Amino acid sequence: MAKTIDKVFRNLRLPDGTPSAIAVAQGKIAHIGTDIAPEAGTEVVDLGGQLVVPGFVEGHIHLDTSFYGDAWRPHVPYTAGFNVRERVEIQHRNMAAAAPMDQRARNQLDLCIANGSTRMRSHVMVDASVGLKSLETIAAVREQYRHLIDIQLVAFPQSGILSSPGTADLLDAAFDHGADLIGGLDPVSFDRDSKGHLDVVFGIADRRGVSVDIHLHEPNTMGIFSIEEIAARTSALGMQGKVVISHAYGLGDVPLDTVRRTADTLAKAGVAIMTNAPGARPFPPVMELRKAGVTVFGGSDNIRDSWWPYGDGDMLGRAMMIGYRSGLLTDDELGAAFDMVTAAGAKALGIEDYGLRVGAAADFVTLQAAHVAEAVVAVPKDRSVYRGGNCIVRDGILEPVTLKR
Ligand SMILES: [Zn+2]
Fold it and tell me: How far apart are the CA of 268 and the centre of ligand 1, in A?
């Protein structure tokens, strides 16, 4: 029996600029084409010729540590160069003085949703200092937002695993408290024990049957060493497609032949790379990685927190930043930047009901642009967001129904 069409969106353009219409049934896309003739009584929405793109995938964020919507906190510089351990200590001091975590997380989610993200992966700190409290708080906020955005939570050992006694057990327990994935942090430079760190991370992944997303700030050949270790573990456990390395800064520091060799290793192991095009720091050459078959995707990472004062929760703007910093110019290259905040993000996050295709969730964003290439460079802000075919953001403002939570 054919599904009853609930709503037809007309007068829109698909990402490549083609005029089209979209029919929605039970929150999913039922038909795409210009030949949709709605039955009498079916709701018809005229989108005024706007571009329609899938809801954005926020592939890496920290819902527990942002001060967005709270008091402005001036950035505290490092005393002697980039040092993750020092930054974590600054963060602990800041967090102690911040507004309640659930309130800050909601502020940040409202910002991301207003900008069109409908899927998200957030890392949440799990360590001996905060235990599982942050995870429980963010998991409760996730429940309040289920009708607006799908959120995956990563149990993230921000203070290391071996450096923070008790953390290994907490990470394992996190899967009884709302975590979906196991995280990790700089196995060599932070814990100074690559094998010990990765034994815990992949041990939990194997035992709990969960995916992995590791923060890797390690530079140069140290970073490449860790990437190779992570890829080897991924292959050994048959976890292709279930492991992400976030940042992988080392790939931005090494010569091209090393990038290519490492890219092949990543592609064979099915390990994806997340980047946020981080400030002035070298970062992975995204097109070289894509050429080798590596899934590369984007995330905001920190939004106005102890790491940096930047971040606006706009994944279209993030695509522009990745494209700008990577020297992407042609329409195809701009399309690649867009892919990193949409389809490639969904692939890396293991999301299946995604995209502008029949059967996928009717989650999409309307943009004032002729096509994706123009959207990436113009980053138009007056956008509306639909979730399951329902408008949750109109012209950048959250709808009243959105706020019912
Ligand atoms: Zn991060």
Answer: 25
